[in-house]
Amino acid sequence: MSKRVLVFFPSKEYTESLIPEIVLKSGTIFNTIKTEVTPTQVKIMGEIKANEEKAQEFIRILKRRGAVVKELGLIMRFDPDKCVACGMCVSLCPTNAITFNKDFSVRYDFDECVLCMNCFKNCPVKAVSYLGD
Ligand code: SF4
Ligand code: SF4
Fold first, then answer.
1. Residues 89 and 52 in one domain
2. Which one of the ligands is nearest to 88 CA?
3. Residues 89-106: pLDDT tens digits?
4. Ligand 2 in contact with 85 (CB < 6 A)?
5. Is 108 part of any domain?
6. Which DSSP letter does residue 66 get?
7. Least packed by Cβ within 10 Å: which of 1, 8, 71, 103?
């Protein structure tokens, strides 16, 4: 299974060997999807490939090393009660994280999300919220 996360390191705490070191310690695989570096912060979006226990261990070690970790499934929220199933987000999502169910209701899988924000910016009824940063 996989879990997408945003990892924020203060620049002074981050070295390039840090993630490989934590991967080794926790017995996980971590695929980096994108990295943004500012003078004060390193922000990494990635996907942990491991069972839940190992993924949580990976996150625990990251936090001990000074990172703030946010799971995408917890910072992106979809409210099915607001959704009018217009399909806008389905057509704009670059990763097929949003699909129609057989009954034409809409399903989000934030473990496939790359935070492009197309759904958030274009939903006409604000059924998608972002709780990150
Ligand atoms: S933020 Fe982008 S990638 Fe994520 S679910 Fe919305 S449209 Fe898809
Ligand atoms: S854009 Fe908004 S209303 Fe339309 S299908 Fe997506 S979540 Fe539902």
1. no
2. 2
3. 999 999 999 999 999 999
4. yes
5. yes
6. T
7. 103
